[in-house]
């Protein structure tokens, strides 16, 4: 029988060292694997955080762009509205100024017939003859002394600046009303009339010296006389000036400041 060789002490030490080195290598590999896993995990977490941050920035920019677009749209709409309002005011001012010019019976070329036709929409009456400078027709008038209705022939004359009235067209003048004395012309409300006046086509001429109570034969004739007489009344002229002034001031307030 062969005898087993005994390991030398040197061989035993070398084997122990190899075993220890192997264990150390395995431990190092495991530590490296753990670090690598931790690194990859943290890398993914930071990548997700960065992606989320970029998404938030992108969404914020999109919101900002949408808001900017809405602001631009609102500003454009405001500018368009302001421009339309400026145009409307300018047109209103021009129309009001033109109306004041058209209504000015003292200007050269004023045509009474055209003016009345425009103001009434072309509704005229055969009971009143209206020309470029005159209006004539029958009117019932309450007397100054005797409070009774009297039939009178009225002549509204732009050239003489008076309203003259006669018992008949060919007879002498019974009286006259200077234009400058006429303050207001109107039809009184039904609620203020007496029973005796019910159904009458009343109109009133207020003047500085007195008040004339008149009646036309038809509603159309009454409206025409009011329109004709109001052309030269002080209240009508004052109202036109006030309207023009209000429109002018309103338009000026809307103008942009420098």
Describe, in plain words, how this protein is organized in 3D.
The protein has 258 residues and is α+β, with helices and mostly antiparallel strands. It has helices at 9-103, 112-120, 219-230, 234-254; strands at 128-130, 134-142, 149-157, 162-166, 173-178, 182-186, 201-207, 211-216. Strands 1, 2, 3, 4, 5, 6, 7 and 8 form an 8-stranded antiparallel β-sheet that branches. Helix 1 (9-103) packs antiparallel against helix 4 (234-254) and helix 2 (112-120) crosses helix 3. It is rod-shaped, with a radius of gyration of 51 Å. The termini are far apart.
Sheet/helix structural class: alpha+beta
End-to-end Cα distance, whole Å, is 127 Å
Number of strands: 8
Count of alpha and pi helical runs: 4
State the helicity in percent bands.
Answer: 40-55%
> What general form does the structure show?
rod-shaped
| Uncertain spans | 254-258
- The ordered string of helix (H) and strand (E) elements is HHEEEEEEEEHH
Radius of gyration: 51 Å
Largest sheet geometry: 8 strands, antiparallel
């Amino acid at each position: 029988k062969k005898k087993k060789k005994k390991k030398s002490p040197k061989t035993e030490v070398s084997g122990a060292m190899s075993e220890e080195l192997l264990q150390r290598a395995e431990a190092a590999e495991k530590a490296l694997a753990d670090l690598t896993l931790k690194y990859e995990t943290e890398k993914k977490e930071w990548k997700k955080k960065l992606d989320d941050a970029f998404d938030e920035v992108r969404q914020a920019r999109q919101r900002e762009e949408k808001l900017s677009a809405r602001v631009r749209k609102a500003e454009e709409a405001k500018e368009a509205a302001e421009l339309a309002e400026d145009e409307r005011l300018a047109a209103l001012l021009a129309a009001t100024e033109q109306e004041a010019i058209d209504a000015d019976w003292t200007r050269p070329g004023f045509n009474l017939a055209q003016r009345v036709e425009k103001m009434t929409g072309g509704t005229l009456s055969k009971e009143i003859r209206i020309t470029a400078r005159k209006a004539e027709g029958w009117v019932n008038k309450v007397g100054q002394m005797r409070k009774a209705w009297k039939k009178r022939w009225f002549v509204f004359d732009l050239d003489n600046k008076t309203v003259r009235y006669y018992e008949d067209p060919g007879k002498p003048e019974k009286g006259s009303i200077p234009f400058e004395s006429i303050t207001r012309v109107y039809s009184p409300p039904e609620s203020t009339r007496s029973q005796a006046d019910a159904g009458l086509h009343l109109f009133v001429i207020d003047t500085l010296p007195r008040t004339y109570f008149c009646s036309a034969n038809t509603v159309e004739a009454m409206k025409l006389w009011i329109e004709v007489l109001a052309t030269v009344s002080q209240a009508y002229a004052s109202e036109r000036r006030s309207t023009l002034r209000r429109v002018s001031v309103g338009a000026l307030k809307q103008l942009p400041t420098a």
